[in-house]
Amino acid sequence: MANKGKRNKSSRRSGATGSRNPQVAAGELTKVERLLKVMGEVVAAVQDAVLEMPGPAGLPVVFDVQILMRGVNSVKAVCVLLEQDHWEHALGVTRQLFELLVNMEYMATLTDREKAVEEYRQFGLLQFFQMKQREITYEEKTGRTPNSVVKGVVEYHLANSFNSFLGKPKKNGDVSWVPSWSRKNIRDLAEASPDSMRSHQYEQLFKIWSEQAHATPGALLMGLINSEGEDWLNDALVADEHEMIQTCSMTFMLFISLWASLPAAPGIPRDVVRWLRTVMQVVGAPEFDLLPGYRIEESGQ
């Protein structure tokens, strides 16, 4: 049974020769393969553009490039998982990409972006010290002795260096912290986005697909219901194609929007028009030349 499942997954990825879809002729790519091809071109374009950037760079440029590279690494991870048909695991990476995007979109609405970048960096430093504090606590609870110098430094900075991020004290008197550098959660940021689609995408990623991200019983429900019949495994794999297309296309759209939200990052190449058209054709959405607000590199015109 396991070998049969592996053979069917392989044939579906190979597209033309092994496809169960009679509309896919020999030599043609499947819908998923067409999307993955576009994603590969996006990754290559980002990497080439970053390598061509002049140096040295200040914090605003370094920040935007770091965000861009984190985003493109997410795209690469999604592609690796989708190539093996693991769309349900790719969703967690897509959610991370969404979180990056709504943070950057919110940052773009602020009057002083450089100040916001510094706030973002300071909150990251707070999270670093919180992580070290948890490590020290774990060491103590497991009978080990933490480094006293490190413990002292961590306690000092948590007590003195991040007062702007303090929340309301807990009922027991313990310190609490604001939820993020922006003082907003992801849903708040999605609703604050200038793009009205963010709220809908939040619903898709954090509610509709939540069962898959957390591997709840609902994630296995359809497989358990449709587990009768000799070909049940292949039927389940074929049924995943729709979710794979949705995951891939959403990842693409989120990343391109993230790229566009980073003013100090390299401009988006004019290939984006072709990429967008291909994605729209695959998902069956209306075609358009360019999403509003996209900053196209001058050299590509």
Task: Tell me what you see in this structure.
This protein has helices at about 1-15, 30-50, 60-85, 85-110, 115-140, 150-160, 185-190, 195-210, 210-215, 215-225, 230-240, 240-260, 270-285. The chain is mostly helical. Helix 3 packs antiparallel against helix 4 and helix 4 runs antiparallel to helix 8 (about 195-210). Mean pLDDT is about 85; it is low at about 1-25.
**How would the global form be characterised?**
globular
Structural class determined from secondary elements: mainly alpha
Low-confidence sequence ranges: 1-23
The whole-number mean of residue pLDDT values reads 84
Question: Can you count the beta strands?
Answer: 0
The share of residues in extended strands comes to under 5%
- Please summarize the sheet with the most strands: none
The percent range for helix content is 55-70%
Number of helical segments with 4 or more residues? 13
SSE map:
Elements: H1 2-14, H2 31-51, H3 59-83, H4 87-108, H5 113-141, H6 148-160, H7 186-192, H8 197-208, H9 210-214, H10 217-225, H11 232-239, H12 241-260, H13 271-283
Helix pairs in contact: 1-11, 2-3, 2-12, 2-13, 3-4, 3-12, 4-7, 4-8, 4-12, 5-6, 7-8, 12-13
Features:
301 residues, mainly alpha, disordered N terminus
Short description:
This protein has helices at residues 2-14, 31-51, 59-83, 87-108, 113-141, 148-160, 186-192, 197-208, 210-214, 217-225, 232-239, 241-260, 271-283. The protein has 301 residues and is mainly α.
